[in-house]
Structure formats: structure tokens, C-alpha cells
Write a structure and sequence with these properties.
Layout lengths: L1 H42 L7 H92 L3 H27 L5 E3 L5 E5 H4 L9 H17 L22 E9 L6 H22 L15 E7 L10 H7 L1 E8 L5 H12 L6
Parallel strand pairs: 3-4
Antiparallel strand pairs: 1-2, 2-5, 3-5
Helix pairs in contact: 1-2, 3-5, 5-6
Length: about 350
Amino acid sequence: MRAQAKRIRHEEEEESAFVSMTDMTVGFLFIMMILLAFFASQAGDPNAVAKVEYDRVVEARDSWQQMAETREETIVRLEEEIAKLLQEKEQLEALVLQLTADLSAAETQVENLEERIRRLLAQVEQKDAEIEQLRQELAELKQVDPLEAYLAQVTQTRRVVLTRLRDAIKADFPDLQVELSEESDALRFQGEGLFASGRSDLASDRRAIVAKLAQRLNEVLPCFTLGQASRFDATCNSGFVMIEAVQIEGHTDDVGTDRLNRTLSAARANNTFFAMTQAAEGVMQHLNLKRQPVLSVAAYGPDRPVAPNGTREGRATNRRIDLRFIMVTPQDTDGIEIIRKALQSVVPRP
């Protein structure tokens, strides 16, 4: 734009110089005409001018007049062009101002966007680090811990054995109330199901239940114990799980003295134990890893209720016998190997 303005000023200066030269030339011609007229007057009639000279002067006058008219037209045209160029210049200057403002706004927006991009890239980098950490944790979690896998197998196997026993007993005695404990580690017989309230001796019809329980237990234990009665093989115990103890637990409600309830719970557990060993003598031949009989007794009196003692139903539930399965739980993989070798050492009897 500066170059254009400079060009316009240069044209204006040239035009001014042209006008000045034209004026000087016209003035000079007029002086010449006066001098010619003077000399003519000296040579002849002062009032007469030679036709040739007259025609030449007229022709010169007409030529300069035409030049003057042409100059006026040129001046008008140039002024119009100058006005047009000035208008275009103003429009261009306004456009430049607008574009400059737009550029400034765009530069500000670019800076803001660049800053936002930097923040987002930092967040992406942080997320990548978090994802990588989580992937490492996931990979570690996916790595199977042999001990954890074995203990999970122990828990699952115990639940399967208890469910099998429960279903068998309920098939033999549909009206008997026997359920798995909440932890799935014991069979729970309500007290009214085996013993009369306040009594520790088994009625004759209840002895049949205990005898059948002993027989069912004697069928299950060989695959998970050692001893002469062991019948281990991988088809019945693929996880190489062993039973530490099958505990006959006696429990009472809170009615009566503590001494009475503890004596009563111990008597119920012992009477159940003797009834089972009489019904299935071989049940005591099932040994744990320490070569001890797995069948044992425990008495807890009112210490471990499973229902509130404030209701008749709750007290009846608490007067119970629990047949709890305690499994061998090794502390490390070496313990797992010891159990495996112990079970594999069992030679099935023909």
C-alpha cells in the first residue's frame, strides 16, 4: 500500500510539472505573436498581417487550445482516478485493520489452543502411566499363585463333600432338618432333630439317623484321608485335598446354667460320636496327615449361637449338633507337595 501511495504522489507531481510547462509554452507563444505583430507593423501596414503568418498563428492557437482542452480532460480523468484510488486505499486500509485484528485474535486463540493441547498431552501421559501400572497389576493378578489356587480347591472340595453328605442324609430322612453352615464348612443338625430338649441321649429312632450318617461319612472319607481304609485316587480327589478333622460339635441354647449347658453339649457330642463309631467301626481308621483319627468331638455349650435365643425357634436352632470338616491347609507350596506325596503313597487294597 505504501508503494501505491508513493506512485500516486509521483503521478501528481508529474502532472503539476506538465501543467506548468504548458502554461509557460502558451505564454511564450503569445509573446512571439506580439513580437511578430510588431515586426509586421514595422514592415508594412501596421493594421495588416500576412495571411500565411495569420494562418500559422491561428493554427498554433487552435492547437494549443486543443491541447488545453485535452489537458483539462486529462486533469479531470486523473482526479477521478485519484479519487477512485483514494477510495480503494481507504477500503484496503480498513481491510488491513480488520485482518490485523482478526490475526491478533487468531494468534490469541492459537496460543490458548496450544496451551490446552499441552495440558491435554500431559493428561494423556499421566493416563498412559496409570494404564501401564494397572496393566502390570493385572498381569500380576493373572499369575496364578499355586498356594492360593490350592486353598481355593480345598474350599471347593469341602463344599462338594458336605453337599454330597447333606443330600444323601436328606434322601434317607426327608423330614430331618440338616443344612450347610453359612461358611459351608459344617453340616448343621437342629437339636430337635436328634435330641429332645434338655436330653443328651439319642432316642432309638434318632440312632438310625446317626448310624446312616456314619455309613455315609465312611463312604466319603477314604478318598481324603490316610490309613488302612484309605482309597485315594485322582478321579475322586483330583486336587489332592486332605481332611484334618471331622469334628462332632455339641451346642445348646442359653436356658439353664453355664455348667449344665456345657455338660449337656459335651454329652450330646460324645453320645453322637459313640453311636457313629458303633454303626461304622471303620470310621476311626481314617487318619489325617499326622496319622491321627480324623473323627473327634468338641463341646461349646451356649457360646456359639446361630440364631437369637429370644424366640422358641431360635433356641431350637441353637440346640444342635454340627459336623464340621476341618481341612489341611498348608502354609506354602512345600506343604502342598507333602500332602500330594502322602496321598500318592497310599496303595489301594485289591
